[in-house]
Amino acid sequence: MKKMIDIDFGSARYDELVELRYKVLLEPLGLKFLDSYREKEIGYIHIGCVESLDDKLVGGLMMIPLNDKEIRLMQVAVDAKYQREGVGHLMVDYAEKRARKAGYSKLIMHAMLSVVHFYETLGFKAEGDIFEENGITFVKMVKKI
Ligand SMILES: CC(C)(COP(=O)(O)OP(=O)(O)OC[C@H]1O[C@@H](n2cnc3c(N)ncnc32)[C@H](O)[C@@H]1OP(=O)(O)O)[C@@H](O)C(=O)NCCC(=O)NCCS
Hints:
seven-stranded mixed β-sheet; alpha+beta; Aminopeptidase; single chain; binds coenzyme A; 7 strands
């Protein structure tokens, strides 16, 4: 069974999450995780999904407050062995509830074109033109929560 957890910045779980995000998101694109990124993540909300049987972290994401109403979802990553089993949906649903509880009314994210459909199934809508960052094409997606 999978369970959702909040992860404290700087904890052992946070290190596990950084490693997972690196393997799933950065390494395939040839990008490095720089230690200087860590400091920036101190005020963010970190969320993980754990397999209860072996306590393994199978997925995670972070949320970055933009202002009083809007919060940005970033670095949604599911371990390759557990993709397409519903973990992504569980995590984004949990993040949405967590954000609403904290008083936010809008989730914002920049989705790679390959995962736009995944976010559409979660109620996000594409907004504006597609754009490029580091050679990767994204579109802004939003959801009122
Ligand atoms: C994208 C990702 C977060 C989805 O999580 P997941 O646990 O695999 O997704 P779920 O099982 O909850 O939902 C899967 C459904 O989403 C849709 N989907 C669309 N594009 C998808 C994609 N590239 N990967 C996975 N699911 C995708 C499909 O409808 C799929 O259902 P299907 O298997 O019946 O076709 C995960 O696959 C992942 O980490 N991928 C690599 C990193 C990445 O691209 N992250 C997004 C950064 S913007």
